[in-house]
Amino acid sequence: EYVFQGVRGGLAPPDSIAAIPLRKLLASGEWRLRHFTLHDLRRTFRTMLSRLGVRFEAAELLLGHSLQGVHAVYDRHSYQTEMRDGAERVAKHLKTLGATE
After folding, report:
1. Within 10 A of 42 (CB to CB), how many other CB atoms are there?
2. Which of 6, 10, 71, 72 has the most CB atoms around it within 10 Å of its CB?
3. Taking 60 as the threshold, does the pLDDT of residue 20 lie above it?
4. Cβ(37)–Cβ(22) below 8 Å
């Protein structure tokens, strides 16, 4: 159900849905990208959220980050609707990348 499972310590579980195929691909030698990590996918996801016009706060929360500074103190909005919209925008965008004409 989830590509990135929430974990503490910065390491993806070895059996996460994202880690298994990526580990196999990198081990096979078919993909010669040297410094690739799962964190690169998080950066790509965050960049995609910005490109698709998702609000900063919602994008950060989708990554599991907490709001900082004044936002953390005064902004008590949950951003659930904005996060759902952001996730739907990304899903729609990804589907267009695999579509054929």
Report:
1. 16
2. 71
3. yes
4. no
- Torsion over CA of 66, 88, 6 and 30, rounded to 10 degrees? -130
Percent residues over pLDDT 90 in the chain = 43
Q: Is the separation of the CB atoms in 16 and 5 below 8 Å?
A: yes
pLDDT tens-digit profile of 49-68? Answer: 999 999 999 999 999 899 99
Q: Are the C-beta atoms of residues 58 and 82 closer than 8 Å to each other? A: yes
**C-alpha to C-alpha distances, 90 to 10, 43, 81, nearest whole angstrom:** 23, 14, 14
DSSP character string of 10-67:
S---TTSTTHHHHHHHHHHTSS--TT--HHHHHHHHHHHHHHTT--HHHHHHHTTPPP
CA distance linking residue 31 with residue 6, whole number of Å: 26
